Amino acid sequence: GFDMTKEPIPVVPAAHYTCGGILTDLQGRTDLPGLYAIGETAYTGFHGANRMASNSLLECLVFAMAAAQDIDIQIKKLPMPSRLPEWDDSCVTDSDEEIVVAHNWDELRRFMWDYVGIVRTTTRLNKAKRRVNILLKEIEDYYSHFHITNDMIELRNLTLVADLIIQSALARKESRGLHFMLDYPKSDDKQPPKPTLLTPPNYVASVIVEPPQRLQASLG
User: Fold this and answer.
1) Could you say which DSSP state residue 26 is in?
2) Mean pLDDT for each 10-residue chunk of the chain (220 residues)?
3) Assign residue 84 a region: left if phi > 0, alpha if psi is -120 to 50, beta otherwise?
4) What is the value of pTM for the model shown?
5) Under CATH, which number does the domain 98-181 receive?
6) Are 198 and 170 in contact (CB under 8 A)?
């Protein structure tokens, strides 16, 4: 322990939330039919540039009700789903590489801390991007050859989120809020601030999702 009467208390930054989330409409619907997102996982735009994408209390009181009401309407229109086939894992085996999963988990933590921390540069972000691409390829290979474990699923999720953070940071050529780039130390005031929206390569919009500014206007 530390005795604060004799020595300074060490202070280090820590991450316990993400800034951003899944874009939704006023019913909590995403652009994937049947998938709703509410709470801190969602990005509604209600709170502007607040540190979190959404506020927990507002989400619980407002969006939970809105999503539940919409689900109640939509579920009555859906046909009864067909029976899913049994999961076939006959082509994969138990992995003897579980220690590698733990090492990859530790590697992800370290290079995100070193390269995608409070102070960023394009060079550091590109280094992180190269490493995260390698991890994503290794995870894809693991999925194809071995039984899936909870640790592997969590590593996949962490790596995907890390990739989204890196892509967003590389796309923003300015410093704004908690995003500080040594290459671009000032905010770009020549154009109004706007959020960074990322879509997957196979993206097909089936539900029109209102952008944040329209969400805010809808509440007025």
Assistant:
1) T
2) 86 72 88 86 70 62 90 90 84 77 91 92 97 93 84 92 91 87 92 79 47 40
3) beta
4) 0.77
5) 1.20.58.100
6) no
